[in-house]
């Protein structure tokens, strides 16, 4: 069950007091804000901040900073004295600067408050750039690979009956969103929608209806299913359209819908963490390369106490913060204690991942449980890197965890199930190359040097995840 943290201001997630700091970006954003107050052009400072955020691997924040710079440039060119545009830019810059200062990478990716300003900036930019669009998933899933998602073959008559049931249950839900108040039978309607999604689900772990069912449960757990949020309304309505595509024999779910559904599923768990009862939804997230933090306490009372102490730690006296021992890794400044803790576990993880990759090269020794262990190891590394602020390392580690998950599922599914899988799992060579790229990044970090960008290694791994690895000889012979 999702637990929303009681924090002040527009943000709901906890700040990350031991997270990395991009000082050059924070300085650039402060200069941009001062320029706004003095009615000067902040574009150059915003671009400087965007470059620093990109170098640190804070890719969602980089997107936001670029949108700020583009909107600022257009505002200067079109209406330098337009107070309405300047006020909107100032508000967006203020909340963005506050978010960057909280050092929480998942919040920078998934904050609804931050995205509301990002969307407003996009609307302003679109007035001068036709076709420019901003979506929540573009920010939340920036640079992340997303595997193909299937719609397994089912009789059209079965899907037509399911869609009719779904549409009857959908009407009161959409009415609730339109009228702003849920009708008395809303929970019964949501139960029926859940039942339809579960009945439509197929055996492939990457079946769209499995993902949609997890998203529906997350919306209900977070309270979004019965409010007027656009994400919930669009999700339920678009699922109705997928039933029609499925009945026509479409083999893959629309990529745009998969990304939107995945981002919606991840949003509240990324911000607020997960509890034991959320294990099924978290397992689905792991299958797609996304991780969450688990709640640290067993009761709401004890967790509230922990949150209060964490919030106080985040508001530590600035003089004390300045005396904290730190290490500089390029543009990123990290807490020395957190840095040392990270290094203690990272090297052992990389050794294990490399060994798993070598074993995966031998089909006779394929072990799905070992693949799951490798995926979990990569996710632990990704979560630790994310907490430290090492965005490039976190992104590549999560992508490697996703690749191992796909290998694990490919090893445990039966031939009948695998006949529904459109894309083969990543080959062992791509797993080994990604592990070696991670090793090289960690060696630089251990030497106190900023790791190189992971773009080439990530691009290769993304191709393996989204397009498949080398063909499986056994499957090729069967075909």
From TrEMBL:
It holds the Pfam family FimL_2nd. Residues 154-290 form the Scaffold protein FimL second domain. InterPro entries: FimL_2nd. This is Scaffold protein FimL second domain-containing protein. It comes from Paraburkholderia saeva.
């Amino acid at each position: 069950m999702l637990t929303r943290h009681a924090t002040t201001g527009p943000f709901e997630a906890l700040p990350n007091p031991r997270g990395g700091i991009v000082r050059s970006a924070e300085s650039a954003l402060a200069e941009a804000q001062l320029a706004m107050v003095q009615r000067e052009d902040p574009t150059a400072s915003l671009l400087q901040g965007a470059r620093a955020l990109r170098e640190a691997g804070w890719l969602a924040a980089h997107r936001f900073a670029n949108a700020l710079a583009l909107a600022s440039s257009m505002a200067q060119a079109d209406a330098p004295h337009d107070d309405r545009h300047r006020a909107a830019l100032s508000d967006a810059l203020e909340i963005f600067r506050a978010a960057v200062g909280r050092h929480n990478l998942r919040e920078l990716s998934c904050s609804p408050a931050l995205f509301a300003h990002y969307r407003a900036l996009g609307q302003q930019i679109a007035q001068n750039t036709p076709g420019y669009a901003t979506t929540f998933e573009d920010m939340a899933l920036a640079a992340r690979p997303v595997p193909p998602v299937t719609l397994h073959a089912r009789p059209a008559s079965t899907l037509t009956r399911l869609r009719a049931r779904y549409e009857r249950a959908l009407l009161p839900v959409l009415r609730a969103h339109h009228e702003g108040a849920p009708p008395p039978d809303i929970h019964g309607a949501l139960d029926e929608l859940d039942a339809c999604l579960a009945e439509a689900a197929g055996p492939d772990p990457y079946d769209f209806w499995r993902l949609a069912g997890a998203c529906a449960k997350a919306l209900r757990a977070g309270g979004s299913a019965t409010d007027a949020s656009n994400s919930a309304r669009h999700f339920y309505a678009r699922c109705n359209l997928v039933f029609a595509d499925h009945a026509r024999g479409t083999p893959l779910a629309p990529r745009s819908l998969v990304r939107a559904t995945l981002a919606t599923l991840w949003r509240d768990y990324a911000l607020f963490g997960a509890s034991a009862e959320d294990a099924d939804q978290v397992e689905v997230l792991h299958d797609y390369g996304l991780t969450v933090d688990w709640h640290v306490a067993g009761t709401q009372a004890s967790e509230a106490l922990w949150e209060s102490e964490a919030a106080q730690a985040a508001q530590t006296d600035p003089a004390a913060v300045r005396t904290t021992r730190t290490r500089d890794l390029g543009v990123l400044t990290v807490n020395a204690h957190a840095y040392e803790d990270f290094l203690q576990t990272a090297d052992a993880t990389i050794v294990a991942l490399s060994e798993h990759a070598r074993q995966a090269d031998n089909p006779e020794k394929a072990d799905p449980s070992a693949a799951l262990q490798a995926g979990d190891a990569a996710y632990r590394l990704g979560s630790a890197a994310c907490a430290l602020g090492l965005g490039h390392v976190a992104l590549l580690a999560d992508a490697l965890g996703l690749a191992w998950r796909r290998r694990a599922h490919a090893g445990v599914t039966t031939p009948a199930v695998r006949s529904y899988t459109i894309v083969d799992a990543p080959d062992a060579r791509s797993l080994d190359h990604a592990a070696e790229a991670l090793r090289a990044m960690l060696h630089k970090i251990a030497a106190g040097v900023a790791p190189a960008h992971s773009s080439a290694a990530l691009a290769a791994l993304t191709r393996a995840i989204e397009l498949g690895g080398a063909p499986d000889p056994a499957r090729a012979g069967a075909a």
